Amino acid sequence: MQRQDLWPTPLWYFEVPPTLIDPNDIAKDAYAFQQSDKGVVISNVGGYQSTTLTMQDRVPPTLTKLLGILTEECQLCAQDFGFERPLSIANYWININGQSNYNKMHIHSSSILSGCYYAVTPPQSGNIVLHNRPETSYILAEMKQIGARESAFTAAEQAFQPKAGAVLIFPGWLPHSVEENRSGQDRISVAFNLA
Questions:
Q1: What is the pTM assigned to this prediction?
Q2: Which domains does the chain have, with CATH numbers?
């Protein structure tokens, strides 16, 4: 018997070496930007999410350098995904989640790929959770009740613990959320969309 997996969901992970980008410098830039930007509420419950930025916006040099690295590295993801033309960062934003802050489940409907660079990630500051399609959740729950073991096919969600300097990239249509920050310290990241 042969098996063929239809419509697999890719997920890419890499780390930006601290010799290229110091996560603490990104954190300083994030706090400085927060002082001049009131932010927005989209998926965030509490915390700070900056207004949406584009590559044309004036930002500190360290953040500009990070965006260049992300753009270059993400081309490999785009090629894996089947794109022959390069993708570029369409927009990005800064997230600062303090104590008890989290992000509700959402998608990035206007992007092909979405990603997140993690600058500050104290223990228990909230995992990113990638969700299987919500319309299948009731079926997956029933499968578990009748004895199906959890696998890549039956899992309703998958959590990833962020690490400072790490980047996670996934399709923009993949539902995801961020767990509550229970660390007592800020969790800082830069999220971005590629199109």
A1: 0.92
A2: 12-127+160-194 (2.60.120.620)
